Every structure is written in C-alpha cells, then in structure tokens.
Amino acid sequence: MHLGYYIHLHGSGHARRAKAISQHFDLPVTFIGTGVSQHNWEGVANYQLLDLPPDKIEYVPKLPINQNCQTHSFHYAPYYAATYRQRAVKIANWVEQKQPTAIIVDVSAEITQFLRFLGVPVIGVRQHGERSDLPHVCGYDAAYKLFATYPQLLEVPQTPNWIKAKTIYAPGFSRYSERCLTKSAARAELNISPQQQVVLVLNGRGGNCHSLTKIAAVASVTPDWLWLIVGETDKEGGSLPHNLCSLGWCEDTYLYLKAADVAIASGGNNTVMEIGTARIPFLCIPEFRPFDEQKIKAKILERLGLCLVANTFPDGNTIKTLLARLKTLDVSKWNEIMAVDGAARAAKAIELEIKLLDSYLR
Predict the structure, then answer these.
(1) For the chain, how many structural domains are there in total?
(2) How far is CA 305 from the centre of its chain?
C-alpha cells in the first residue's frame, strides 16, 4: 500500500494539516505539490516528496484565449501553460511508477478530476464556504470519499445529503492538541497576574491584518485590559499605551493562547482550531477568501456561541461592549468539537478506507 497526499501551495495551513495527520499513518506516503520540499516533515515516519512546478497565473502565457480560463467544470484551465502540462506529466508518471492505493487531495477540484481519469481513488479534503459551484461539485462527485477536518457539528447547513454521505468527519484538532497547560501556569511563565484581563490579537504574516494604530487606540480606552499582539504589524507610529505589548512574529503561540481571556483573530482553519484547543472565546474578523470560506465558518461558530463576528477591527466606541460580551460566552461547546487525539483519529479513519481499497486489489 502507498498513499499520495496532494497539498495546495497557498499558505502553510494545508501542509501543517497534512503533517499533523500523516504523523499517525502506518503506511508510506508521498507528499505532492509545489514547494513541498520546503516544509518540515519531521515526525512523519515514512515519506517521500514529489515537488511540482508552480501553477501560478504569472506562468500562464498572456494570450487572448487565456483572458478567462474558467469553464463550467474547472475553476482554472489555461491554454499552452508549460508548467501546468509539466505538473500533469509528473503526477501521471508518479502514479504509473508507484501505483498508489489512493491519494488525498487538499485541495483542488482539477487535480481530483485528473486523478480520477488516471484511475486513482481520491479522498478529497473539504473546506468551509459556499462551494455549490459546478467545479467543486464535479470534484466532489469524482472523489471516492471526502474528508472534513471538522465534526458534523460544524457542517455547512445547506450541504447536500449526497456530499455528507461520502464525507469522513474527523474531530477538530490543531498542532497544540496534545499539549496541556493551565492558564495559571501560562501566566506564571509570562509574568502576568492571575487577576489581569488579557486580550490576545493574532496577526498573520505581512502586517496587513490589524494595524498597530487601531489596536493602540482601543487599548488606550480599555486600561484595565492587557493587550498582547502576536504576529507582524505595520511600523509603530508613536509611543504605545502602557497596556499594549507587540511581541512580533511567534511560531509557537500556545503559551499566549492559554494565558488569554479572549482572542481577536481571523477565521482561518488553523487559527480557529488553535483557539478551540485553548478553549477561549474570540472575536472573529473574517478575512476575504474565495467562496466566503472564513465568513461562513465564522457564522457557524457564532451560532454555536463560540465567537462574535465583526467585519472590521472594532473602534473605541464598541470595544468595551464586545469584550464584556466575549467574557460571557460559554465555550464548553468546544468539547464537542475538539479532541486531543483528533489527528490520530483522522489518520485511522483514512487508513481504514485505504485498507478497504487495498483489499479490492488482492
């Protein structure tokens, strides 16, 4: 048995998820995708890498017929793009050489359909969002099984029954799932008083998520709260209020999550699951993503009482009310979503399907 694992190149979340699950596989796996060799796969016992040429728009010839490359069944299918052709050839050659039992695809409707033509069963990863467009439906239809890295409690309400029927649901998990730290221990390590109220602002890379100026403004009107910013910000425009500390980029945010009373963050999958691991309420400010992925996920979490949702970073007139409301949220629902062994259970569920497929070949 051999498993392939295709990883979308956008962001680090797909690779991080692949690593968390694959650490629990008992079978060999090949990670496939652009830039897979640049990720750290430490902890995965038996793996190989198949690095693909990029599929970015800048590699597509600027021809009139490439002005609009979406078809009814594909999100993007350019003409005469050498790197796209090379990707397909490399994947096909690898399939011929390895003859994998199945391939997990996280994520691509086009790759899923291509692999189906090659006769390879695909386990397609599902994400939140409005994905009733034909390319997504074609990809879901072509997949042997679908895989959601969240329990059915977080399912999008309008999802068709046939999609839910072929979906393997896993408990929520994050890279911090197996770690254990109390709030008091986290605060002791950070030298924060047990009585201090703490807001954690999680910024992504690039400093374009929540500006330091806006955060400083709301910190100034909430002197009884300590504000911590983890992540990159724009350049400091002046002196910061005494209750605001910008910590810069931090690869491991677990300590700060456990020390916080509330968080302010986007609706990205890894961010949400890490907040869920910490069991703290948060103000979700969804970032733009195709198919409204973060907005729809945020609405589901808000309906469950796990977060509040805002379109933009709050101003000084609303922040006090929001912080007071956040502190009243009952986050016990996270216990029905998250699991310490969530990644291991996801891997086991996938391996059961692989073993069933392998039995057909014997």
Answers:
(1) 2
(2) 21
